[in-house]
Design a protein that fits this description.
Radius of gyration: 18 Å
Number of helices: 7
Structural class: mainly alpha
Largest sheet: none
Helix content: 55-70%
Oligomer: single chain
Order of helices and strands: HHHHHHH
Number of strands: 0
């Protein structure tokens, strides 16, 4: 059992990195759909949001930009913080007034994105992100490397 836990701990930065990539991609797709009419568009029929329309157009810009940053793992914590806040706003302003629970008010995606991004605020980008690459590039002393890099180096 201890060997399994040890292996899982070694894979943790990579699992977190994959989680970040998937969440960032899904979020960026929402923004691209609303802004450019791709992937079904804002209304499911290829439409776009009017430029500057509050709050939808601004939310779509946040989705595209923050989702893209999270996807590549650049400024992950800051982008995730903004994305989490935007989804909290979406949930409480748009969904929650209709009903209390996300299942009743169609706010499941907003709630899940909010909490997923909040998790990334606290965990960082994990492995496979540009944040990690830039942090380790200037560091030659293994003691100064981020934890996920030390774990990856120890596993090799």
């Amino acid at each position: 059992m201890h060997a399994l836990v040890s292996r899982l701990n070694q894979a943790q930065p990579y699992a977190l990195g994959l989680f970040r990539i998937v969440i960032g991609l899904l979020f960026a797709c929402h923004g691209a759909a609303s802004l450019f009419g791709v992937l079904g568009g804002a209304d499911g029929s290829g439409g776009t949001l009017p430029t500057g329309a509050w709050p939808g157009w601004y939310a779509a810009v946040i989705q595209l930009v923050a989702g893209g940053l999270v996807l590549v793992g650049l400024c992950t914590r800051g982008a995730a913080f903004i994305a989490s806040g935007s989804m909290a706003y979406a949930y409480f302003d748009v969904h929650q007034p209709q009903a209390l629970f996300p299942l009743q008010n169609a706010g499941e995606a907003a709630a899940l994105f909010c909490w997923a991004f909040l998790l990334l605020v606290f965990t960082g980008s994990g492995a496979l992100g540009l944040d990690t690459l830039f942090r380790t590039r200037g560091t030659t002393d293994p003691a100064e490397r981020p934890e996920e890099t030390k774990t990856a180096t120890a596993a090799a």
